[in-house]
From TrEMBL:
Signal peptide: none annotated. Its EC number is 1.8.1.9. One of its GO terms (cellular component) is cytoplasm. It catalyses: [thioredoxin]-dithiol + NADP(+) = [thioredoxin]-disulfide + NADPH + H(+). One of its GO terms (biological process) is removal of superoxide radicals. It comes from the Bacteria. This is Thioredoxin reductase. Keywords: Disulfide bond, FAD, Flavoprotein, NADP, Oxidoreductase, Redox-active center. GO terms for molecular function: thioredoxin-disulfide reductase (NADPH) activity. Homodimer. Residues 7-297 form the FAD/NAD(P)-binding domain.
Amino acid sequence: MTQDVRDAIIIGSGPAGYTAAIYLGRAGYRPLIIAGALTPGGQLVNTTEVENFPGFPEGILGPDLMENMRAQAEKFGAEIEYDDVTSVDFSQPVKSVVTDSGTTYQAHSVVITTGSEYRKLGVPGEQEYSGRGVSYCATCDGFFFKNKPIVVIGGGDSAMEEADFLSRYGSSVTLIHRRDQFRASKIMVDRVEANPNISLRLNSVVTAVRGDSGGATSIELEDTVTGERTAIEANGVFVAIGYTPQTSFLGQSVKLDQDGYILTSPDATSTSVPGVFAAGDAVDRVYRQAISAAGSGCKAALDAQAFLGALQSEEQLQASAS
């Protein structure tokens, strides 16, 4: 089933998608948001308190922030479909977007804000014990490991936040990082180092997750300096080592870099295809903050508005000439 041609479609939600929808909605374009079937709202729906989003001096829960953004987008005329995009066709002036339900949507402009997904360790036992000890979301699963040994793997802000959060549940929390220095912000590192319930294991990589019929029981480590192999008891194994952009559905429709991030023009959100724009963590491999994603969503909406305005002016000129 093919829908009528719309002005704008936003693929993805989260801070970038909802902000783009707010701006396009206020401009009168009534965008369609294809928000995803399982994870509408992006990664913030799995976050506890967000302390660094401007306007909330006391902080705000991640799901509440996303719910507010969604409601604001709908207030200004955005329509939301909770479905997944499986393929696109950007080869024609009218772009086509196909969803998992079999529906084809068409629009003059498309904004891609599909974000990124958790990166896996790729070691023996990780897949086997996924959901039975191995987790990628502390706020989702931390409660299940109350008074049990926990390890967190990673060295960025996400790993720090997860270790700090999990320290209220686990009998112990060990933060494992492959280098001798963290890439996380200083305030997050200071918070973890000051937490008496968290111990650090640096210059170490996980080589396997071990367990039994009840779930994960330990991890195996290798020291990157000495090569020594050891084991740490762990019922909860929380992986926070980065992300992979959710762009596989795009195929060759727009230019991507070697890691799958969408390439955009310098100082703009336009992609290699006129009328197609991108924002948020599907583009940004550096900052990965809710506020930077929201800002890029604003930019993408303004770029899309400019494109649609020029398109309408051209159509009016052609109509007057005929």
